Structures are given as structure tokens and as C-alpha cells.
Amino acid sequence: MQEEEMKEGNEAASKGSEDIAENNSNAEASNEEQKESCECCENNDEDEISILKKRIEELENEVSDMKDKYMRAMAESENIRKRTAKEKIDGIKRANKGLLLSLINFMDNFERALKSFDNDETIKGSEYYKGVELIHKQFIDFLTDNGVSEIEALGEEFDPNLHEALTMLEVPDIDKEQVVEVYAKGYKLNDELLRTAKVVVGKPKKTE
């Protein structure tokens, strides 16, 4: 009887050991599965982070490209604005230049008419002549106020950039070419040449 009880006890102990071993084995297997699952999750997280980083980089490149296009468009718009403004100003200048030249040509005739009375003291002393002189002065003031100035010519050294020589003649007692007579005055509009002076140029007389 005792032997049977001992045998049953041993069998129970053996079975218990087997159960414990089996449980330990199952636990180890479960741990391995959990470890593999964690590693898989970590790999998935790394893949997602890599994808997100790549997408962020793509978006940054797109933003940079759009910013570059925007800056180019703004620069082009500014260039167009400046070009349009310059063309408008140039157009106004051309129109003003044409008007001023017309007034200068008119004033040439005006001055010739005044000069024709130089030897007539009766007319020069009249109120009519004084009124004409006043109108002439108003013309000059108008041109001056609009940036027009007369080019110095008479007695000056001949400058082909400012003077147009209608004729040349030998003149004694000079050592270089110079203007000896002005047929039509020259003018500048600010620093820009408006019209050359039409002149007679004297040149040094040849010595025999």
C-alpha cells in the first residue's frame, strides 16, 4: 500500500515537473513571440519615420521652389513696372522736347524781327517795341523754367559737339578755331543737347 502511494506520489511529482517545464517552455515561446513582435513594431516605426522624413524633405523642396518662382515673378513684375515707367517718362520727354524745339524755332524768327529794328530808333523807342520785347523776355523765362539754357558760342573755341559750322573763314590774330558769328543759337535741355548752334567758324590765317 505504501509502495503504491509512493509510486503515485512520484508520478504526480513527475507530472508536475513536466507541467512546469511545459509552462516554462510556453512562457519562453511567448516571450520570443513578444520580442519578435516588438522588433517588428520597431521596424515599422523606423519605416514610417523614414517615409515622413522623406516627405518633409520633398515638401521643403517644393516650398523652396515655389519661393524661388515667387521671387522671380516679383522681380519680373518690378522690371516691367520700371520699364513701363521709363517708357512713359521717355515719351513725355520726347513730346516736351518736340514742343520746346518748336518754340525755339518760333523765337528765332521773333529775334530776327527784333534785330531788324536795331537801326530804327523811332520804333525801338515806341511802346509797341517795348511790348514785343516783354513778350520775348516771357518766352526766354518760360524756356529757362523748363530747363532750357543757351549754349555759349560767340568767341568760344569751336566744339563740333555743340556747334554746327555753316562756313569757315580765315581770321587774323587767332591761334585756334573759334566761333566768330552765330547764325542760330544752340540750346540744351538740362544736360542734354537740344539743338546745336549754327555758326561761322574762324580759323588761324596761314602765314606765308
UniProtKB/TrEMBL annotation:
Q: Does the keyword Membrane apply?
A: no
One Gene Ontology molecular-function label: protein homodimerization activity
Q: Matching Pfam families, A to Z?
A: GrpE
Q: Where in the cell is it found?
A: Cytoplasm
Which biological process annotations from GO are given for this protein? protein folding
Identify the stretch(es) annotated as Disordered.
1-42
Name the keywords, alphabetized. Chaperone, Cytoplasm, Stress response
GO CC terms: cytoplasm
Where does the secretion signal sit in this chain? none
The principal localisation class reads cytoplasm
Role according to the record: Participates actively in the response to hyperosmotic and heat shock by preventing the aggregation of stress-denatured proteins, in association with DnaK and GrpE. It is the nucleotide exchange factor for DnaK and may function as a thermosensor. Unfolded proteins bind initially to DnaJ; upon interaction with the DnaJ-bound protein, DnaK hydrolyzes its bound ATP, resulting in the formation of a stable complex. GrpE releases ADP from DnaK; ATP binding to DnaK triggers the release of the substrate protein, thus completing the reaction cycle.
Listed under subunit, the entry gives: Homodimer.
Question: Which family, according to UniProt?
Answer: Belongs to the GrpE family.
Its protein name is: Protein GrpE
**Species, as recorded:** Brachyspira pilosicoli (Serpulina pilosicoli)
